Amino acid sequence: MALLITDDCINCDLCPPECPNQAISSDAGIYQIDAARCTECVGHYDQPSCMTVCPVECIEPDPAHRESLDQLAEKYTAMYS
């Protein structure tokens, strides 16, 4: 499942450099996660690095983009092969 950044985001700028897939960007000062690039850090880390650094815990699973661990691993493989 891809992740999403909720409205609780304080735009602290910590999450974009942590994302190994470059899935986090800012549009008009609002951070968003590109579901097509988000693997929840599968293939890179044991847990999503953006969630680890978020001081207000505003990053959560995106119910609109449900994916299994196998699907996330396949997405990672497709991006890096």
From TrEMBL:
<feature type="domain" description="4Fe-4S ferredoxin-type">
    <location>
        <begin position="1"/>
        <end position="29"/>
    </location>
</feature>
<feature type="domain" description="4Fe-4S ferredoxin-type">
    <location>
        <begin position="31"/>
        <end position="64"/>
    </location>
</feature>
<dbReference type="InterPro" id="IPR047927">
    <property type="entry name" value="YfhL-like"/>
</dbReference>
<dbReference type="InterPro" id="IPR017896">
    <property type="entry name" value="4Fe4S_Fe-S-bd"/>
</dbReference>
<protein>
    <submittedName>
        <fullName>YfhL family 4Fe-4S dicluster ferredoxin</fullName>
    </submittedName>
</protein>
